[in-house]
Specification:
Layout (H helix, E strand, L loop, with lengths): L1 H24 L26 E9 L6 E3 L4 E4 L11 E6 L4 E6 L3 E4 L2 E10 L5 E6 L4 E5 H4 L3 E5 L5
Amino acid sequence: MKLVLAVAGVTLVVLAAVAALFIVISPGTEADPPAPLIPTSPAQVAPPPALLDVSGRVVLKTWPDQVEYGDYPACSGEGEFADIRQHTPVVVTDASGKTIGVGKLGTGVHREEGCVFRWALAVAPGHDFYGVEVAHRGLSKYSAAQMNLPVELVLGDQAG
């Protein structure tokens, strides 16, 4: 009987030690929560950098055989301007030529001045110069001040 009590006593001591170990290494309780893994207070989180909203339009000035008129007033490029249509990429670069923003042309709309496509996107500010290229049609350069206004790219020639 003494042997059984001794084994039971040792078992009780071992269980108590294991329980104490779990309490010591546990991450905490509601009264003592663990430290957050990510910063949560405003002082710990750096605000995201403000972006520069840039926008513009592409005016396709061509003879009627180079513009496809869909459901009026929609339009898009044809022939040598077939790459100028809705979803055509608009790429904005910094002065070194690094791409800092990519957007796409909206739906072409027939206007008096031609087939007009609008675009808009947000880029990192703080560059002295920016480049805008639509469908690999050549880079147009703009100053930071010019990028604060809608920019206009004109393609084609009404005079034929």
